[in-house]
Task: structure prediction
Amino acid sequence: VIEQVGAREILDSRGNPTVEVEVALDDGTLARAAVPSGASTGEHEAVELRDGDPTRYNGKGVERAVAAVLDEIGPDLAGVEAVDQRIVDQKLVDLDGTPDKSRLGANAILGVSLAVAKAAADSADLELFRYLGGPNAHVLPVPMLNILNGGAHADTEVDIQEFMIAPIGAESFRESLRWGTEVYHSLKSVLKSRGLSTGLGDEGGFAPSLSNNREALDIILVAIEKAGYVPGRDIGLALDVAATEFYGDGAYTFEGAKKSAEQLIGYYTKLVDDYPLVSIEDPLGEDDWDGWIRLTAELGERVQLVGDDLFVTNPDRLEEGITRRAANALLVKVNQIGTLSETLDAVALATSCGYKSMMSHRSGETEDTTIADLAVATGVGQIKSGAPARSERVAKYNQLLRIEETLADAARYAGDLAFPRFDP
Ligand code: PGA
Ligand code: ZN
Result:
């Protein structure tokens, strides 16, 4: 039974304040969760409450969200069973009373929702992935390692936000992480040898100044080969274009020119012809439904098309996408929707309609590793948590190493489960 809910303002990986919540149960269990934060946020995301007080943290303080936990949410949840996750989450939604969680703040709400789940797991003496996923949780996700950063996550002219590698050919998560990390180091050498910057972007990937997006893909292919792996067979490529960021007034400003959705679709088709791409996220803007529908008809059989800003982990927007055949996969970010139950609803809807799901961190992260457990609990088979470097990114991958070890012979790496169509 929930006895007390505490909260405090802590820092995230970009040095911005975020919410940390602690839930205490009457049996002495104490569990903690911290909330991530995006930079290329979608218009339709649940609202992250910031103080707007310019005298503290440039207005980015979260004292109001902390107060919402202490003054309103805590008293409302006292006496509720921690295992009643859906009741807890419904109470949070009702107490907030707005469709976008803007009154209490999705950051306040999510912190509580996750901390309650962790407390319930601890109290039952179960690891979080087992508590949430039950006895069948055994699939380790393919890590989509973001090794080259552009867009809103870097100070360069590279339009595409994330260039990821997916070690689909590995036998285990542990092996996939080693392969990907070797390629990360190989990329550093290649960049150095070409006199390019090895400075890092927000998600730990390198952020060199390159003349265009294909150059990034070409350099990554060289890095994969130099590390001794075969592109496409061992390691696939994946992108998060985050196209909403460069969309405005009916056009996409891409590689220095204004482009229509049609032109971008042509560009992506050529990319899929030329590179071993397994997944493209947000190739078009968050409200460009017509473009998404055309793109999905054109490329949906050949490559995974992931809706991030398009769906914002919102079951209602996902349902619209499924009905209209836009995208074929869901990006899952707990703080876009704000409660664990709604997150699980979105994944369940995707799965039941043949859409894949990719668990995801945010560009602003903390040491919290909940999404690693969530990836195994839901069995989605894919996770993106940035580069295999920087502790806030690596914390999630390290947790997956532990989970794989715990599962021992029962563990199954998702390589060919997640990407069966791309078997060479
Ligand atoms: P964000 O970026 O966390 O800055 O929104 C991640 C993404 O777009 O997937
Ligand atoms: Zn994205």
Observations:
- The pocket of zinc ion (ligand 2) is lined by residues 240, 242, 281-282, 308, 331 (CB under 6 Å).
- The first strand starts at residue 2 and ends at 11.
- The chain has a mean pLDDT of 97.
- The first helix runs from residue 63 to 77.
